[in-house]
């Protein structure tokens, strides 16, 4: 069961009503495939559709497959590639190749407690679902394991060796907040092929920490929420750091930025997906929090607002505080891409674009000036989150 977070409410509704539905999930992508592994589409018992796999390219064919899976209960694996005649028929003209796994999900499933899984996801408790999507024995296709980081698991893939290998690797993916495809020998051997297991990791949302309660911070916070981040706005001034000024943020904290960031790090609440945007434009706030941020090895992005002169002064102050050149090289300041942004909203788009480019290792050039795949070459194991 590999449903993305956006289709879980509909899936849970049918589950509670005692009805089965078909769940189609992208489990592998290559070249310029339009969506990442973990994207899901539901076909309900009434024939309705929730979610999307490719932005419209393959949904028509997958819908027909899903109806068959609902009818006979047999999970199936389909590949759509731009070079295939079948792909042309279903409309995958955008390029790339996607693998789609279609399975039946019903309340009589013995290896899945959807209510408990939904509770975990809603509460932000990490949980992963590992599903066999390929195996020489068709009877094993669709088998599931629910894995939690504390060592608990539910279900079986048919043998202790398979279970042990997949549980171990699924915990690793879950710890990194990654969804992806794992390959083993037929009985879970570390070397070999035959067994493919897709792990949907429902990790807490990646975090965006916005320091400085300014108009630019409000725009960046709203954009971060739109991109799916769990957004915290932090400022030491209670008159500015209010929930009413930042309705798009998940949390508004009144504290000195450096003290808050240090406490979050000490509680192990930051990871390589966390992005930090320092927007107060005041050295008494900016320099101390940047000193903490640049010394944390696991942050995904650190940016600070300021003119070029201000940015140079900030770097000089950080050097005086003992921050080394390797750490300073991680700082994006002035923050954002060169879009000519002037308003807070335009600046937020510029910042978001830089964060996206940094996450995917791209140079952020206009697409019409770039050769090669539009979506890059994602690893088959993926770096996405089912959440």
TrEMBL record:
Domain XdhC Rossmann stretches:
208-355
Which InterPro entries does the annotation name? MoCofactor_Util/Proc, XdhC_CoxI, XdhC_Rossmann_dom
Superkingdom is: Bacteria
Membrane-crossing segments per the record: none
Q: Which Pfam families match?
A: XdhC_C, XdhC_CoxI
The segment(s) forming the XdhC- CoxI domain are 14-81, 122-185
Q: Any idea what this protein is called?
A: Xanthine dehydrogenase accessory factor
> Which species?
Microlunatus antarcticus
């Amino acid at each position: 069961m590999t449903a993305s977070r956006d289709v879980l409410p509909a899936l849970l509704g049918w589950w509670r009503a005692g009805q089965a539905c078909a769940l189609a999930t992208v489990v592998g992508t290559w070249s310029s495939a339009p969506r990442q592994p973990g994207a899901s589409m539901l076909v309900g018992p009434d024939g309705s559709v929730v979610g999307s796999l490719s932005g419209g390219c393959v949904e028509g064919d997958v819908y027909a497959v899903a109806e068959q899976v609902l009818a006979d209960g047999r999970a199936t694996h389909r590949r759509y590639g731009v070079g295939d005649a079948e792909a042309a028929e279903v409309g995958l003209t955008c390029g790339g190749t996607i693998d789609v796994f279609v399975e039946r999900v019903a309340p009589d499933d013995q290896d899945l407690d959807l209510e408990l899984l939904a509770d975990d996801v809603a509460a932000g408790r990490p949980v992963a679902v590992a599903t066999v999507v390929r195996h020489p024995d068709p009877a094993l296709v669709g088998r599931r394991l629910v894995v939690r980081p504390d060592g608990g698991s539910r279900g079986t893939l048919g043998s202790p060796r398979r279970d042990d290998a997949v549980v171990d690797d699924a915990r690793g993916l879950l710890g990194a907040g990654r969804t992806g495809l794992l390959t083993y020998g037929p009985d879970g051997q570390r070397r070999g092929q035959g067994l493919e297991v897709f792990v949907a990791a429902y990790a807490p949302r990646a975090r965006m920490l916005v320091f400085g309660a300014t108009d630019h911070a409000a725009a960046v916070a709203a954009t971060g929420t739109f991109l799916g981040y769990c957004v915290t706005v932090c400022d030491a001034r209670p008159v500015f750091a209010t929930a009413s000024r930042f309705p798009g943020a998940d949390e508004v904290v009144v504290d000195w930025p450096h003290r808050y960031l240090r406490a979050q790090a000490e509680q192990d609440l930051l990871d390589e997906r966390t992005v930090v945007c320092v927007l107060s434009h005041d050295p008494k706030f900016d320099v101390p929090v940047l000193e903490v941020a640049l010394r944390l090895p696991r942050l995904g992005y650190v940016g600070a607002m300021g003119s070029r002169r201000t940015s140079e002064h900030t770097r000089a102050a950080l050097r005086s505080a003992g921050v080394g050149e390797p750490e300073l090289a991680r700082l994006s300041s002035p923050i954002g891409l060169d879009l000519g942004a002037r308003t807070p909203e335009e600046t937020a788009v510029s910042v978001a674009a830089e964060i996206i480019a940094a996450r995917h290792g791209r140079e952020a050039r206009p697409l019409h000036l770039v050769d090669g795949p539009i979506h890059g070459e994602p690893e088959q194991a993926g770096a996405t989150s089912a959440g």
